[in-house]
Amino acid sequence: MMIFNNTTSSPSTFLLTAFPGLELAHVWISIPVCCLYIIALLGNTMILFVIFVKQRLHKPMYYFLSMLSAADLCLTITTLPTVLGVLWFHAQEISFKACLIQMFFVHAFSFLESSVLAIMAFDRFMAICNPLKYATVLKDMMIMVIGLFICVRQLIFIFPMLLALKTISFQERKELSHPFCYHPDIIRDTYSNPWINSFLGLFLQLYMTGTDLMFILVSYVLIIRAVLSIMAPKKQKKALNTCVCHICAVTIFYVPMISLSFTHRLLSSTPRVICSILANVYLLLPPVVNPIIYSLKTRTIRQAMLQLLQTKCSWSRNVRGLRGSWD
């Protein structure tokens, strides 16, 4: 099945857009966008590779970090073809089935990242508030069960949203506000009443991300209460420093996501270019910034990366030396 098609005009196609009103500058806009995609792909791949290779990183905290990087990586790959297709080749048309598939993965990996952030908050809560039980509760089997549970949770709640879209009568060539398929954008300006689908989408948004965010807030309330009970200021600072990366990851994920969702559902008069900018920030900011934050602030990750780079450099020098001796 072809994702892009510039010739068909059947009623089952959507028109993707990127930065409406700036079509003549798409080539120039694609340069920073492409650079951000490269950073996201390389950064998350590097974190996954380092955690997989280094035995000393096989701990609950880094297992959850690898889940976060995997979700970011998959979300990046899901939108990469359509975003660059629109910017480089003006390939705007996408079939209804392909749009549903992309929408499913966009929302699935987005909700998955939200669930992983909630689990990471629980990890920090156990490490700070119950350090003696940390190793006994978060065993490898428990981490596998948690990972499987949050994956199954996404499938159970996203499929009804996809099935509900089958009942909607769309316009002949519906133009979307983004270079990817996003549920609130798809159901806007349909022939049939979109309120049922909009309510279902909002319910899933509030239930999936709302419960995760509430869980995160409760975890940090308990963490702050435990930290304030510590008398030594140095120990307080050390405990809070272990949460800085996670707090940054939560902020850069939830703020753009909530802004984009409510802009679509509550502020219908918002200019499309604003929606497009919010969508790209929502898609690219977490996958780009998360690897940078965890690489700079987590000493073990930083040291493991430097060791791998040094090993690769020394291996390259040895290979060149052998080639020189053979010549």
From TrEMBL:
<dbReference type="InterPro" id="IPR000276">
    <property type="entry name" value="GPCR_Rhodpsn"/>
</dbReference>
<dbReference type="InterPro" id="IPR050402">
    <property type="entry name" value="OR51/52/56-like"/>
</dbReference>
<dbReference type="GO" id="GO:0071396">
    <property type="term" value="P:cellular response to lipid"/>
</dbReference>
<keyword id="KW-1133">Transmembrane helix</keyword>
<dbReference type="GO" id="GO:0004930">
    <property type="term" value="F:G protein-coupled receptor activity"/>
</dbReference>
<comment type="function">
    <text>Putative odorant or sperm cell receptor.</text>
</comment>
<dbReference type="InterPro" id="IPR000725">
    <property type="entry name" value="Olfact_rcpt"/>
</dbReference>
<feature type="transmembrane region" description="Helical">
    <location>
        <begin position="277"/>
        <end position="296"/>
    </location>
</feature>
<feature type="transmembrane region" description="Helical">
    <location>
        <begin position="202"/>
        <end position="227"/>
    </location>
</feature>
<keyword id="KW-1003">Cell membrane</keyword>
<protein>
    <recommendedName>
        <fullName>Olfactory receptor</fullName>
    </recommendedName>
</protein>
<feature type="transmembrane region" description="Helical">
    <location>
        <begin position="143"/>
        <end position="165"/>
    </location>
</feature>
<keyword id="KW-0472">Membrane</keyword>
<dbReference type="Pfam" id="PF13853">
    <property type="entry name" value="7tm_4"/>
</dbReference>
<keyword id="KW-0807">Transducer</keyword>
<dbReference type="GO" id="GO:0005886">
    <property type="term" value="C:plasma membrane"/>
</dbReference>
<feature type="transmembrane region" description="Helical">
    <location>
        <begin position="101"/>
        <end position="122"/>
    </location>
</feature>
<keyword id="KW-0675">Receptor</keyword>
<keyword id="KW-0812">Transmembrane</keyword>
<feature type="transmembrane region" description="Helical">
    <location>
        <begin position="64"/>
        <end position="89"/>
    </location>
</feature>
<keyword id="KW-0716">Sensory transduction</keyword>
<keyword id="KW-0297">G-protein coupled receptor</keyword>
<keyword id="KW-0552">Olfaction</keyword>
<feature type="transmembrane region" description="Helical">
    <location>
        <begin position="239"/>
        <end position="257"/>
    </location>
</feature>
<comment type="similarity">
    <text>Belongs to the G-protein coupled receptor 1 family.</text>
</comment>
<dbReference type="GO" id="GO:0004984">
    <property type="term" value="F:olfactory receptor activity"/>
</dbReference>
<feature type="domain" description="G-protein coupled receptors family 1 profile">
    <location>
        <begin position="43"/>
        <end position="294"/>
    </location>
</feature>
<dbReference type="InterPro" id="IPR017452">
    <property type="entry name" value="GPCR_Rhodpsn_7TM"/>
</dbReference>
<feature type="transmembrane region" description="Helical">
    <location>
        <begin position="27"/>
        <end position="52"/>
    </location>
</feature>
